[in-house]
Design a protein that fits this description.
By secondary structure, the chain is α/β, with parallel strands linked by helices. The chain is about 45% helix and about 15% strand. It has 3 domains: about 140 residues, Orthogonal Bundle (N-utilizing Substance Protein B Homolog, Chain A); about 55 residues, 2-Layer Sandwich (Alpha-Beta Plaits), CATH 3.30.70.1170; about 200 residues, Rossmann fold (3-Layer(aba) Sandwich).
Length: about 425
């Protein structure tokens, strides 16, 4: 297990240095090519768990250290080990011994004997003093909820009735939710197929099934044949809300990785342009389309510019804008620690360029669905309100989330989905051009 600790500590250290976990974890795994599949899986779990509860873990570590550590690698090993002691079921003394071994195997330039002694002392002090330390940690909100204080303060103001549940839900393991392509199989038949494969599931509504336990994608029946996709329940609202029909010319702006693109096409659209500014991410869109056996015009282009547009208006536009991703932190645990409060204004400025630019491409009478995976109001309704104020030909349409989702289990406030066990925190605003 010490190798898993090493890999996880490497990944955590990279994230705390500013790298995205989706890049940091593969880099950490690549540095230990001889790790077994079991060790790699454990390293992934430890990486996600440590970052999920980093605020709490770091608060404990600060109390245990007499002064900040000068070696980031040793610091990260302690974080991973403390996560195990606080949240894992592993034997405490085994965790300590493995952490000491992991510290002793750090490559040059490496700390010498002091690292082993320090790691051993810190972790054993934690075990002796855990009760006293816990009472002090409990007085700090950033430790209790494992979020930056600025994030907590913002949610308190914007969601006085929901802020605690939003924070707590963001620290849960995300469910594995499927979207069934009902053009190929009925919900009933597919759920029975899962049952025959020994995979338990529950229907959420619409085309969504949530698995009782996550399984490897390659073990999901029909996945490779485009019968089913993996997509959060909240994200599955986008395509039906957009309401694209066969005769509509549709633009999916900022389309990568293509989950919503595929869903729009599955619901009957036949003329769709999938746009994204990142050619590398568009490869994922093309891969998804190939798997789903669907076709779209895939284009490299900036949603905030118009040099790629041929001048022919679109009847429907999905504007899935870049955002802080504050509504999907249970899936992207690094977001909490990579984002800074100033980043909110930066994303707001970017969205404020995209929305009016796409609006000029929308046909009269057409609809634009503004989407973000954020829970911060500045990026969501406040952004839409500012746009409506400056565009007299725009009208925000009301919609019934329950009718769209096919169920009443979507928690929302005027288009803002409140993160829950069933779904992530997406925002939707449907705009029509007069």
């Amino acid at each position: 297990m010490y190798l898993s600790q090493q890999i996880a500590a490497h990944a955590v250290n990279l994230v705390l240095s500013g790298r995205n976990l989706t890049l940091a974890l593969p880099a950490a795994l690549a540095s230990h090519p001889n790790a077994t599949a079991q060790q790699r899986g454990a390293a992934q779990d430890l990486s996600y768990g440590t970052l999920r509860f980093y605020g709490e873990i770091d608060a404990y570590l600060i109390q245990l250290l007499e002064k900040p550590l000068s070696d980031d690698r040793v610091h990260a090993i302690l974080l991973v080990a403390l996560y195990q002691l606080l949240h894992d079921k592993a034997d405490a003394f085994t965790v300590v011994n493995q952490a000491v071994q992991a510290a002793s195997l750090l490559k040059k330039p490496a700390p010498k004997a002091w690292a082993k002694g320090l790691v051993n002392a810190i972790l054993r002090n934690f075990l002796r003093q855990q009760t006293q330390l816990a009472s002090r940690v409990a007085s700090k909100e950033a430790a209790t909820y494992s979020y930056p204080q600025w994030w907590i303060n913002k949610l308190k103001v914007q969601y006085p009735l929901h802020w605690q549940s939003m924070l707590l839900n963001g620290n849960q393991h995300p469910p594995m939710t499927l979207r069934v392509n009902c053009k190929k199989i009925s919900m009933t038949d597919y759920q029975q197929l899962l049952t025959r494969q020994g995979i338990e599931s529950d229907r959420l509504g619409g085309q969504a099934l949530v698995l009782s336990k996550p399984v490897a994608v390659e073990k999901i029946p029909g996945f490779n044949d485009g019968v089913v996709s993996v997509q959060d329940y909240g994200a599955q609202l986008a395509a039906p809300l957009l309401g694209a029909e066969m005769q509509h010319k549709v633009l999916d702006a900022c389309s990568a990785p293509g989950g919503k693109t595929g869903h729009i096409l599955e619901l009957g659209c036949s003329d769709l342009t999938a746009l994204d500014s990142d050619p590398g991410r568009l490869l994922r869109v093309e891969s998804n389309l190939q798997r789903l056996q669907l076709q779209a015009k895939v284009m490299v282009g900036d949603a905030a510019a118009s040099d790629w547009w041929d001048g022919v208006p679109f009847d429907r536009i999905l504007a899935d804008v870049p955002c802080t991703a504050s509504g999907i932190v249970r899936r992207h645990v690094d977001i909490k620690w990579l984002r800074r409060e100033a980043d909110v204004a930066s994303f707001v400025a970017q969205q404020a360029k995209i929305l009016p630019n796409l609006w000029q491409m929308l046909a009269k009478g057409g609809k634009l669905l503004y989407v973000s995976c954020s829970v911060f109001n500045e990026e969501n309704q406040a952004q839409v309100d500012a746009f409506l104020k400056n565009n007299a030909d725009a009208k925000q349409l009301a919609f019934d989330v329950s009718a769209v989702s096919g169920a009443d289990n979507v928690t929302h406030l005027h288009g803002q989905l409140i993160p829950s066990a069933a779904h992530d925190g997406f925002f939707y605003a449907l705009l029509q051009k007069n």
